[in-house]
């Protein structure tokens, strides 16, 4: 079984199709991939299939001048099992070379389908995708079905637990894209005389700002001047278009060597954007009153997320408890999906997800909806799956995040949680919420972040001195500082491959301190009055065992030999600042090792499989 978080682009109705496909695939590079391919047809009987292992530049170099066409599909494949190879790369095609297919997702019952319907058929690849394209061909050729009917028949045979985004081409109707999705993201881009389809709007922004959603269990037939959506029962579906007013250059690196550095630098602007979008002139939160009413009814808030988003949830939980007095729990989505704790009577669910597509989190949301519990998704991607499926959405307004390691989405999540916590707290007339001058505080945060991102040279030298050689490192802290320690350690490990742990500093002495040896880096985060002294004592314990200690400390708690001093802000918001040096330490450690900062090994940006 292969697993993919692949990228898909399709276009019809323009003789620029090759460059649109290649540029679109480049915009989807963030999703992770290890091979890429395109298929184009010029409507006069010529068609071309090119696939290459490795980076898109290899594919680009393989494109000769005669390769052109007005309709085409492109794909980046990311495999976790099996060797990436040209034969396993997409597009896949039927043995008679009539049908070409790209696919993102996993067909769980592909072996059964192969055994039941395709015995005797010779397969070129090991993929589940090839089974689908051969099956479509069989239904068309042997049962005389038209392509759309055969496609539908195959979609009905695919088991419910499968996930897919498919774009199919048929040599007999070379201007047409046959499109369907289930759980995997895919949307239509609407052009003037041409149309597109892709996994993410960023892949189409150069051509259009107008988009159309595709829902699960629909077939979309896309031609140059027509988009026809039908459900699986053949009913025609009307669909409004929507606009994404994002500048295509928002997804460009500009002069930055890596997206991650650009995204770290954008954080002060993101904080200001959140203020603009969510706080009025008087600093009062502007949040949907129905959402507030729904949370007001709740006896407990459940925050669900994965990875960095889970860490942002840990920080947010403290804000919800302190500003609203509603008990709040935070759960890792892949755990909660299969080990649901005993629930309170009136839960309210908050899903934190940058991409809005994370399969683990969606699994929880599907269950939550089945139980009839209310839900909110906080996401960076409008119209993403979790946004569409939850009762309410709050957007992060962080702009596209392309680097695999999440930075500005984390700080945006924390800031939006602060907005929501204040809004609920005020709605419930909780005194701490009214006192909390969030607008002023986020202004201080933005200025503080700017000072931190401006101190890159210092962070680069700290990274090279302390983190370039060791194989292990620790981030430690208590309370909210521990939550940031977890996120900081994740950043370091995922892009620099240093094995890093985020630890509750008081817990070290209960076992883990045995790992500390001469020059083990231990980074202490100290931003809270109540626990500062305790964490400092814990740092002394590791210093006496030879550790190299780095400190990230809030100004009013700082001492002369602290490494990095953060400006003072409200204690609830210190994570917005303490995480920034940690992001940059990870960045410079990775850079110093000559690694691909934006695309760490084994990882993909959008994790659409469980
Ligand atoms: C780490 C990172 C991941 C994501 C996680 C959830 O830097 O980016 O840990 O946070 O895969 O993704 P979203 O937030 O899209 O649900």
TrEMBL record:
Keywords of this entry: Aminotransferase, Cytoplasm, Glutamine amidotransferase, Repeat, Transferase
Residues making up the signal peptide according to the UniProt record: none
Any one of the GO BP annotations: UDP-N-acetylglucosamine metabolic process
Cross-referenced InterPro entries: GATase_2_dom, GFAT, GFAT_N, GlmS/AgaS_SIS, GlmS/FrlB_SIS, Ntn_hydrolases_N, SIS_dom, SIS_dom_sf
Cell compartments where the protein resides: Cytoplasm
Pfam families per the UniProt record, alphabetical: GATase_6 (PF13522), SIS (PF01380)
Active site positions: 6 (nucleophile), 605 (for fru-6p isomerization activity)
Positions of the Glutamine amidotransferase type-2 domain: 6-233
Keyword Plastid annotated: no
Top-level class of the enzyme under EC nomenclature: transferase
Major localisation: cytoplasm
The enzyme's E.C. designation: 2.6.1.16
Catalytic activity: D-fructose 6-phosphate + L-glutamine = D-glucosamine 6-phosphate + L-glutamate
Positions of the SIS domain: 291-430, 462-600
Gene Ontology terms, MF aspect: carbohydrate derivative binding; glutamine-fructose-6-phosphate transaminase (isomerizing) activity
Cellular compartments per GO CC: cytosol
NCBIfam families: glmS (TIGR01135), PRK00331.1 (NF001484)
Protein task: Catalyzes the first step in hexosamine metabolism, converting fructose-6P into glucosamine-6P using glutamine as a nitrogen source.
Subunit (UniProt): Homodimer.
Identification of the protein by name: Glutamine--fructose-6-phosphate aminotransferase [isomerizing]
Record organism: Paucilactobacillus oligofermentans DSM 15707 = LMG 22743
């Amino acid at each position: 079984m292969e697993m993919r978080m692949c990228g898909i682009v399709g276009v019809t109705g323009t003789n620029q199709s090759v460059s649109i496909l290649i540029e679109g695939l480049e915009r989807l590079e963030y999703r992770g991939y290890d091979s890429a391919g395109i298929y184009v047809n010029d409507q006069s009987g010529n068609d071309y299939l090119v696939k290459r292992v490795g980076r898109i530049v290899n594919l680009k170099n393989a494109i000769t001048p005669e390769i052109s066409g007005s309709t085409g599909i492109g794909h980046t494949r990311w495999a976790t099992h099996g060797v990436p190879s040209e034969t396993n790369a997409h597009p896949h095609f039927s043995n008679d070379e009539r049908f070409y297919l790209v696919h993102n997702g996993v067909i769980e019952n592909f072996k059964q389908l192969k055994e039941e319907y395709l015995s005797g058929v010779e397969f070129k690849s090991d993929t589940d995708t090839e089974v689908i394209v051969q099956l479509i061909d069989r239904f068309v050729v042997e049962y005389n079905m038209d392509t759309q009917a055969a496609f539908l028949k195959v979609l009905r045979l695919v088991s419910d637990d499968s996930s897919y985004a498919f774009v199919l081409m048929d040599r007999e109707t070379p201007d047409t894209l046959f499109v369907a999705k289930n759980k995997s993201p895919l949307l239509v881009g609407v052009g003037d005389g041409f149309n597109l389809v892709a996994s993410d709007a960023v892949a189409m922004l150069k051509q259009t700002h107008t988009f159309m959603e595709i829902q699960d269990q629909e077939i979309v037939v896309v031609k140059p001047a027509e988009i026809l959506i039908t459900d699986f029962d053949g009913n025609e579906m009307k669909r409004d278009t929507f606009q994404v007013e994002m500048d295509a250059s928002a997804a460009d690196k500009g002069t930055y060597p890596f997206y991650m550095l650009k995204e770290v630098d954008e954080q002060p602007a993101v904080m200001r954007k959140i203020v603009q979008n969510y706080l009025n002139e008087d600093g009062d939160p502007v949040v949907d009153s129905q959402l507030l009413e729904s949370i007001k009814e709740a006896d407990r808030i459940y925050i669900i997320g994965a990875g960095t988003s889970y860490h942002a949830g840990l920080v947010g939980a403290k804000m919800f408890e302190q500003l609203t007095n509603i008990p709040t729990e935070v759960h890792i989505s892949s755990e909660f999906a299969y080990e649901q704790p005993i629930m309170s009577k009136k839960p309210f669910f908050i899903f934190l997800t940058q991409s809005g597509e994370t399969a683990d989190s969606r699994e929880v949301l599907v269950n939550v909806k089945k139980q009839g519990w209310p839900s909110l998704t906080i996401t960076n991607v409008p119209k993403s799956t979790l946004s569409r499926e939850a009762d309410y959405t709050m957007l992060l307004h962080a702009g596209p995040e392309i680097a695999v390691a999440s930075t500005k989405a984390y700080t945006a999540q924390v800031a939006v949680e602060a907005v929501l916590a204040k809004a609920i707290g005020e709605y419930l007339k909780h005194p701490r919420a009214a006192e909390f001058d969030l607008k002023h505080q986020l202004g201080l945060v933005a200025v503080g972040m700017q000072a931190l991102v401006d101190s890159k040279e210092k962070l680069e030298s700290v990274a090279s001195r302390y983190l370039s050689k060791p194989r292990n490192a620790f981030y430690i802290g208590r309370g909210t500082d521990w939550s940031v320690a977890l996120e900081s350690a994740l950043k370091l490990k995922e892009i620099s491959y240093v094995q890093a742990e985020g630890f509750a500093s008081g817990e070290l002495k209960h076992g883990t301190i045995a790992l500390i040896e001469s020059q083990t880096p231990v980074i202490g985060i100290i931003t809270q009055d109540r626990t500062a002294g305790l964490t400092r004592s814990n740092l002394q314990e590791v210093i006496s065992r030879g550790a190299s200690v780095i400190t990230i400390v809030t100004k009013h708690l700082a001492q002369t030999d602290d490494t990095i001093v953060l400006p003072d802000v409200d204690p609830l918001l210190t994570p917005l600042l303490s995480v920034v040096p940690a992001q940059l330490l990870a960045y410079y450690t990775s850079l110093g090792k000559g690694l691909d900062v934006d695309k760490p090994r084994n990882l993909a940006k959008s994790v659409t499989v469980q």
